[in-house]
Design brief:
The complex is a heterodimer of chains A (397) and B (362). With 397 residues, chain A is α+β, with helices and mostly antiparallel strands. Chain A contains 11 helices and 12 strands. In chain A, the strands form 5 sheets. Chain A has a 4-stranded antiparallel sheet with strand order 4-11-7-8, with no helix packed on it. In chain A, strands 1-2 form a two-stranded antiparallel ribbon. Chain A has a two-stranded antiparallel sheet with strand order 3-12. The N and C termini of chain A lie far apart (55 Å). Classes of the chains: A alpha+beta (397), B mainly alpha (362). The A-B interface holds A 34-35, 95, 98-99, 102-110, 112-117, 119-121, 123-124, 322, 325-326, 329, 332-333, 336, 367-368, 370-371, 374-375, 377-378, 381-382, 385, 395, 397 and B 69, 71, 73, 136, 139-140, 142-144, 146-148, 150-152, 154-155, 158-159, 161-162, 235, 277, 280-282, 285, 288, 292, 321, 324-325, 327-332, 335-336, 339.
Amino acid sequence: MDDFLQTLMTAVSVGSLYALIALGYTMVYGVLKFINFAHSDVVVLGAWFSFTLATWFLPQMGIDPAAAPWWAACGVLFFAMLACGGVGFLIERLAYRPLRRAPRLNVLITAIGVSLLLQNVGQLQFDLGAGLRLPFGTQPQGMPRLVPDVALNDAAVARGVAGEGGSSSTLVLEHPAVLESGRSYRAVVYRDNGAVERARITSSTGTYGAGAVMSLGSSLTRPPDGSVYVIRRLARVPIAMIDVVIVVTAGGLMVLLNLLVYRSKLGMAMRAVSFNTDTAALMGIPVDRVISFTFVLGAMLAAAAGFLYAIKYTTLQQPAHAGWVLLGLKAFVAAVVGGIGNIQGAVLGGFLIAFIEQFGAVYVSSDLRDISVFAVLILVLLVRPTGVLGSPSCEKV
Amino acid sequence: MDDSNNLAPTRSAVLRNVTLPVAGAVALGLLMQLVVGPASGPYATRLMLDVGVAIIAAVSLNIINGYTGQFSVGHAAFIAAGGYVAGSFTYYCSLLWWGEYAKHGGFLGMGEWLFFCSCLLGGFGAAALGWLVGLPSLRLRGDYLAIVTLGFGEILRVLLQNTNRQIFDAEQLRDATWRQLVPPPLGGAQGFSDVPKYTNLFWMYLMVAVTLFVAVRLKISSTGRAFLSIREDEIAAEAMGVDITRLKVRAFIVAAFFAGIAGGLFAHQSGTVIRPIDAGFQRSFEIVIMVVLGGLGSISGVTLAAVILTLLPALLLDFAQYRMILYALLLILLMIFRPQGLLGVKELWDFARPWRRGGTRT
């Protein structure tokens, strides 16, 4: 049961990432009828822009990325989305617009070209002075966690001020505490300067009185005398803060997108262009501007997904790494499975793919998780090529 | 009209269609092996081998992407499949028969004939895979098909990563339990190494010549014209009685066969370890770039592009970082300013004899 709930949680969180990326694929397909192969690279850009902002820009502003306030994280997200929106605009303007009337195959090849270009430009690195290095180089980097690594359903079992005599790997209790068997405990130590440190408690289970010494699994940077501590019992199925942040952010963006597409004039224009470009143009809709806007929107959602991915997994692979491409492919599969061109379909597909992948990995075989996704794709395409929610299209001769 | 008589090949037809080309291919192979190779040194020989693999790969992909107009980005999967089948066949047969995996026999010796057979086997293995991949293409077009071929490549890569460890010893191979043999011992993520180094300029350019010949003859055959008609307009082709389904699958099978042979030659090259990543999409993209640059459908153009794009990195070693950027820009600019590639559907010889329009013009 614990396994099941844990997998469910991961699937929901990963699914919302897939859904965010799939939305970009599906919107571009909606208006231009081609697969934007470069979309997954915009996700990578989003992740790496977030990295640059978090590790260079935040320190410049005097904020420690390890203890960043929540609005700093929001700022990183916002500027990463803005930068990727700009990149999305440029891609459409420079590479795809000249091909508006070209055969779809040519646009597809161009998209592959753009994807290769972004990947390989991203692998370069120049020193721009003041410690700023752009683009991103060929080494994996550690992304600072902008969201604290805590679970929302941990229970605090004891708190107080650490007593005299504690070392960097021990903690002297002020009040008694009970450690139940079969559970894990963690000490959270709050410093005067606002920094927070966490360490697993490795003492054996039992009842500890005031003044007892708890041993910690890892060393703290400074002996904790006088700092405030909390001992938390870790939940069996932790609801990680990061997963909640991902689901809430992604959900919020999806609601906004939905409002934009179905409740605004611009959204109506997008739907009109998607329905029939030529007729939309005749009706006075500025088709080029709407397509540009769609690209920018898709790129911004991709950037948000990249940011969330970066703070969830914290290890950023180099821009051309196969892992990124696989992420993009899975999101694309999600878009196709849900019915490409259909916004609800992309979200549904994102969750569907994540569920199949995560539950398949846990209950069938983790080695074959990537296969299951593509097997689903091929199956869906063979049985219902328009996807679950897609409407069948017929071609006039 | 007596059709049965026309179907029986006349002596001159056999001479023209089989004997002469094979003789030509053997002559080219011997020339490369005995004259060009020794004259140009080991580094150039190595480059020429790479060029050969690239030519076979690109020309065969051209059959799917260029002639038939289907967009496959999974060609590396066929190459890797052929490489794995051929490489493991030679390797394990050598272990069983000769007790060691070193090269056996000299030029045109027993070992080389085993190598030849395993390359053919690799071709058939890849062709079987091509049949499998061709099946969904019955229902899919353009970008969907691209994604499915990509997906097949990735599936193959993951499957290869989960194969058993390679067996390095003849004794162990004889005593191997079924657990060591299923899934097949292809080296897993480390790749399959120590394949005997049989590939030389003779076999490489023999195969290059055969591939080019088949590609040229295919293009001007009725099957080739049917391929081209599918590419131009699927619905119109169907209306004219072209069996689209069967021909698309056939294009995949033929192309995969030659890709498998390219893979076999690649696997037996000195200094290569075939890895699961060879089936991945990055290698596929490189081949697609060759085909697009050369001109979708133009055999000579694609060959030229394969030569250029294989030699370019060797010349641009100092700019290795910028090579892929250059390729990507080339691809984008080409699509914007010259979408038909360097030569389009034309061949080099169409330019040499402008008064004689070939039957392949569309």
